[in-house]
Design a protein that fits this description.
The complex is a heterotrimer of chains A (449), B (292) and C (312). With 449 residues, chain A is an alpha/beta fold. Chain A has 19 helices and twelve strands. Chain A folds into two domains: 178 residues, Periplasmic binding protein-like II (D-Maltodextrin-Binding Protein, domain 2), CATH 3.40.190.10; 222 residues, 3-Layer(aba) Sandwich (D-Maltodextrin-Binding Protein, domain 2). In chain A, helix 2 packs across helix 15, helix 15 runs parallel beside helix 16 and helix 18 runs antiparallel to helix 19. The chains are: A alpha/beta (449), B mainly alpha (292), C mainly alpha (312).
């Protein structure tokens, strides 16, 4: 009878509902096995730190660590959505851009009492500890790594163009004509008929090899890790102050000159358009589609692993005065204020940022440069033994060519506001007139919390 | 009168073209999922899988080690298939059963019972059709959040499970169109309205009920936005969100194309199976929703 | 009781009855109450209350993790001067226009052709396949097929024109590509809906038309289309409302880029709320979207005179 069948179905549904309502169980009690969730946006670092898990779990029975990785373009929204919905990870890798928004909303756990209790020696971190202090003077993260830019080049293409490594090692850039850097890029660009970028008859519409990979992708308000490194190395800074800037000087004539020059590079055919290639830098440089890349220190081991040893590393270019000033982003390990197991999470974070784990993990795949000085040295030595040259990076430190990347308020909103505008500029949809507006906008947004 | 053969040929050409466009992507997912990422870069347009490998599926199902995964261009992420399918099944089934039930009894009250204010209340319910989902999404999130029901099935189900303006409207219209002879006769014979509802009306509405059930199930199975807000914890996360998460875990330097396609296939698979089994039903029942 | 007249048209029995109220039914309110309580609870708590709460929240600065702070009209003032919002509205309207326009045309065409050529269940089934998969899956497949370097579509285009098109990666093509994906996903479903509507048109009407000497095209425009009006109206209204709320497709592929070219309103609302904690403003934007939809639907219903059917 249909009626009976209906009741049965309804009853079954009720049972399932009851079961389901009871099912999401989690270990919220502090005894019993605890899982600590840790997030990162870099799959290589995820794999690297996972190497520390077995030792950690052996020393801390009852704690399991789970590493998850999300694409950097989704990472921060996922994190924020997690704060809102109450399912954020216990600890996570974070960028200083978001220190203020997260700390300001009370989502980060201050680590001072843990640091004191465990007597963590903050001076072992060569770089980054200060960056993670908030305006309330509390320490909100243990520094994880530091990263900055580097130039990678296809060795064959370089020699074919008649350059030596010495040439690449001392490239300079200025916003007027791009310095020796631009010269070399143009020469390295070859069109489909074999004409080089600095020869007459060069056809920008049919390029076979681009001199430099695209540098217009903007992940943050001032192109850090990409085009933004160029004006910065020449001493042209967009934020008016390194810590807690009040305005981003987009309308500064030097800044505008720089950005114009950078856009012209791809417009004139020496660099591919934004989004033209969806494959990785490794493929682009390995296959000869581009001759040089402005990449990050985190790319070094990927390129080194390319078959044939084709890719060389050169330091980031200098400014017009021959000196380098490189923004170094130091990522930090944050603990979520809403974590259900802060003590266990701290144990993992402290272990992650100890020399033991830093050394082991960094040497696993060379995917990051540890903030701890001793680990960094150990890494450089180990990589040298493998034939990968990290000396470029070690020299950045010893020559004091780094400065911490700027911290500012309202990171998420400013990033969301500025990135599309830069994309619009670089794809030719808008021109320099947007920069004064952006500057005003930055003032407003930076003043808000 | 005969139809011009030219017209027929054109029509068939169009139809075949249409079917090709509709079905080709499905073949393409399969082909890509069975290929190796690096071969894909080398031979992007080969019609057959290139560098044939089951590695992508292994990655997606969590059967491959992180090292292997990264070696093949993947990211070490995986979809815990059993868990997320279970979650999707629970969500979709419960939602369908509950909402269809609540809707059919309400529709009966509007279609067959007489009571003061009946039409007014119905009109009020209908206004909900005018409220776009996005409008109530955030406030519903806030409500569920305040009730402490985020990351629970209850929170996932509640907003949609009790009230569906469309279902009530559709069922009521259908019931109004039914001949009430049998029901009237039963009433005269002494069966109460409740009995009529369950023994006569509902069986007579089984067609639309199946339709609504199928449609609701498919929509719930494919729901993304609401679960994205509410159900991120793996214990409640449904398959769609898991797929999104997997896509987000793609190495940022280079998307894991094969892995993504394998994941997409895995996510679409249950619906495709359902379709093979219930195909004819589904096709016919969609027709019903069109007829007032 | 009930006065009836029945007639048989085709194989459907149409019953026209005059309802005479039956004394036995007069006071069913107790039962009615019980029967509508679940739906009513759902309506009140998850449709009515959120709408009202939403209206309230739009007047506050609500950072979700801290209690809302009343700020009066400041969100609305910000809305008016928010160029990203208005750009987003434009982008969304563009998307809707493309996907509904193209989608309905194709669906109608397909339905008519199906109706004429074959009633095969297999073919109808194939036509429906895209409907079964989620927006996320559809987005991923097409993103792969439209990839500038490796996608099969661009491989074909390159072999013809020598250049590939950056579908999802360029500002000009982002929305059209997304609309394309949306059309691909829903045209089968809409086609079947319209097809079912076509089936309800009695053959007699076409017989009569043919006897009067009308040709195929005339029958289509003078008979089929007007009779289909209620169905088309319904499909159109639903498709428009659905398209305005597009989220899955964009969130998984372009995420609003490049340069906000595909920053549809639901995405912008989501980012504002969940990416920047700014719930108050996000709700304000939802309200604006609500008003827009209401207006558009109202206009549509008016234009299409959806309530009447031209069966004269």
């Amino acid at each position: 009878m249909k009626w009976k069948r209906f009741t049965t179905v309804a009853l079954a549904a009720g049972l399932v509902a009851a079961a389901a309502a009871c099912s999401p169980s989690d270990e919220s009690s502090s005894d019993g096995p605890v899982t600590v969730n840790w997030w990162t946006w870099d799959p290589n670092q995820g794999a690297a730190y996972s190497q520390c898990i077995p030792d950690f779990e052996k020393a801390n029975p009852g704690i399991t660590v789970k590493v998850s990785q999300y694409n950097v373009s989704d990472y921060f929204t996922k994190l924020t959505a997690g704060f809102v919905a109450g399912d954020a990870p216990d600890a996570f890798m974070n960028s200083v851009t978001y220190l203020q928004s997260y700390a300001g909303q009370g989502q980060l756990l201050s680590l001072d009492k843990y640091i004191e209790a465990d007597k963590v020696d903050m001076s072992q971190f060569a770089i980054g500890a200060e960056a993670w202090k908030y305006t309330d003077d509390k320490q909100y993260a243990l520094p994880m790594d530091w990263a900055t830019a580097a130039i990678y080049y296809n060795k064959d293409l370089l020699t074919k163009a008649g350059y030596s490594t010495a040439d690449v090692d001392k490239m300079s850039w200025n916003p007027d004509d791009g310095g020796t850097f631009w010269q070399i890029v143009k020469r390295l660009t070859v069109d489909k008929k074999g004409v080089r970028g600095d020869q007459p008859g060069f056809d920008p519409k049919n390029v076979a090899t681009y001199g430099l990979g695209n540098i217009e992708s903007t992940g943050d308000p001032f192109g850090q890790n990409n085009w933004g490194m160029l004006p910065a190395t020449d001493g042209i800074n967009i934020p008016d102050k390194n810590q807690w800037a009040t305005v981003f000087n987009y309308a500064d004539p030097q800044v505008i000159k720089s950005v114009k020059l950078i856009r012209a590079l791809s417009d004139d055919g020496y660099s591919p358009q934004l989004n033209q290639f969806s494959t990785a830098g490794a493929d682009q440089i390995g296959s000869g589609k581009v001759a040089m890349l402005l990449g990050g220190t985190w790319d070094a081991s990927t390129f080194a692993a390319l078959p044939g040893g084709k890719v060389g590393t050169a330091p980031m270019v200098t400014g017009s005065n021959g000196k380098r000033a490189l923004m170094a982003n130091s990522n930090g390990n944050n603990i979520w204020a809403g974590s259900k197991h802060p003590d266990q999470t701290w144990k993992w974070v402290a272990y992650q940022e100890s020399a033991a784990c830093q050394t082991k993990a960094s040497q696993y795949n060379g995917s990051f440069l540890p903030s701890i000085g001793t680990s960094m040295d150990a890494l450089a030595a180990a990589q040298k033994a493998k034939g990968v040259d990290f000396s470029v990076f070690a020299k950045y430190l010893s020559n004091d060519e780094l400065f911490p990347s700027p911290i500012y308020n309202n990171g998420a909103a400013i990033t969301n506001a500025m990135v599309p505008q830069f994309e619009s500029y670089f794809t030719g949809k808008s021109d320099e007139s947007i920069f004064p507006k952006m500057q005003e906008q930055s003032k407003e947004l930076l003043a808000k919390k | 009168m005969t139809r011009f053969p030219v017209g027929r040929t054109l029509a068939w050409t169009y139809l075949i073209g249409f079917l090709l466009v509709t079905v080709f992507p499905f073949y393409w997912i399969l082909r890509t999922a069975l290929s190796n990422n690096y071969s894909l870069i080398a031979h992007p347009s080969s019609l057959l899988p290139t560098g044939f490998t089951l590695g992508a599926f292994a990655r997606v199902l969590g059967l491959s080690s992180a090292a292997d995964a990264i070696a093949e261009g993947g990211s070490g992420a995986s979809i815990d298939l059993a868990l997320f399918v279970r979650n999707s099944v629970i969500y979709a089934t419960l939602l369908t059963v509950i909402v269809v039930f609540c809707s059919v009894i309400a529709a009966y009250a509007f279609a067959r019972l007489q009571w003061r204010g009946r039409n007014a209340v119905f009109a009020i319910f209908l206004t909900a059709l005018m409220i776009p989902g996005i409008m109530t999404l955030l406030p519903n999130f806030v409500l569920v959040h305040d009730l402490g029901l985020t990351n629970t099935f209850a929170g996932l189900l509640l907003p949609g499970a009790l009230f569906s303006a469309f279902n009530i409207f559709f069922l009521r219209q259908f019931m109004l169109g039914l001949s009430s002879e049998v029901e009237e006769a039963a009433l005269i014979d002494g069966l109460g309205p409740l009995g009529v509802l369950f023994r006569i009306t509902i069986p007579m509405t089984s067609g639309p009920l199946t339709t609504l059930g199928l449609l609701t199930f498919i929509n719930a199975w494919n729901d993304y936005f609401w679960p994205l807000l509410i159900a991120n914890d793996p214990s409640v996360r449904p398959l769609t969100v898991a797929l999104g998460v997997f896509a987000q875990a793609s190495p940022q330097t280079q998307p894991d194309f094969a892995g993504l396609m394998a994941a997409a296939l895995v996510a679409a698979f249950p619906m495709l199976v359902l379709f093979v089994i219930f195909g004819k039903r589904i096709v016919n029942s969609i027709g019903f929703t069109g007829i007032k | 009781m009930v006065a009836e007249a029945t007639e048989t048209i085709g194989n459907r029995v149409l019953t026209r009855r005059k309802r005479v109220s039956n004394p036995a039914h007069r006071n069913d309110w107790k039962l009615a109450l019980v029967l509508i309580i679940p739906a009513a609870v759902g309506f009140v708590f998850f449709a009515a209350y959120p709408t009202i709460r939403g209206i309230y929240l739009s007047f506050t600065d609500f950072k979700i993790l801290t209690p809302p702070v009343w700020t009066g009209l400041s969100n609305y003032r910000e809305l008016i001067s928010d160029s990203v919002f208005w750009h987003s509205v434009g982008v969304t309207v563009y998307f809707v226009a493309l996907s509904v326009g193209l989608g309905l045309t194709l669906s109608l065409l397909t339905a008519v052709i199906l109706h004429r050529l074959t009633g095969s269940n297999a073919i109808r089934g194939l036509v429906l396949m895209p409907f079964l998969i989620s927006g996320v899956v559809a987005a991923l497949i097409w993103q792969w097929m439209l990839d500038p370097g490796l996608g099969i579509i661009n491989a074909a285009i390159k072999s013809v024109t020598g250049h590939s098109i950056m579908f999802l990666g360029s500002s000009e093509w982002a929305i059209p590509s997304l609309a394309l994906i949306s059309v691909w996903k829903s045209m089968g479903y809409n086609a079947i809906l319209i097809f079912a509507g076509l089936q309800t048109i009695p053959d007699q009407i076409y017989e009569a038309g043919r006897i009067d000497g009308a040709n195929e095209f005339q029958m289509f425009t003078r008979l089929t289309l007007p009779l289909l009006r209620p169905i088309m109206a319904m499909v159109m209204v639903l498709t428009v409302i659905g398209s305005f709320q597009v989220f899955d497709l964009v969130a998984v592929t372009t995420k609003g880029g490049p340069a906000n070219a595909s920053n549809v309103l639901p995405l912008y609302i989501y980012e504002t709320g969940f990416g920047e904690f700014n719930f108050g403003y996000a709700v304000t934007m939802s309200m604006a979207l609500f008003v827009m939809l209401l207006t558009i639907t109202f206009i549509q219903m008016r234009l299409l005179r959806a309530n009447e059917s031209d069966t004269n």
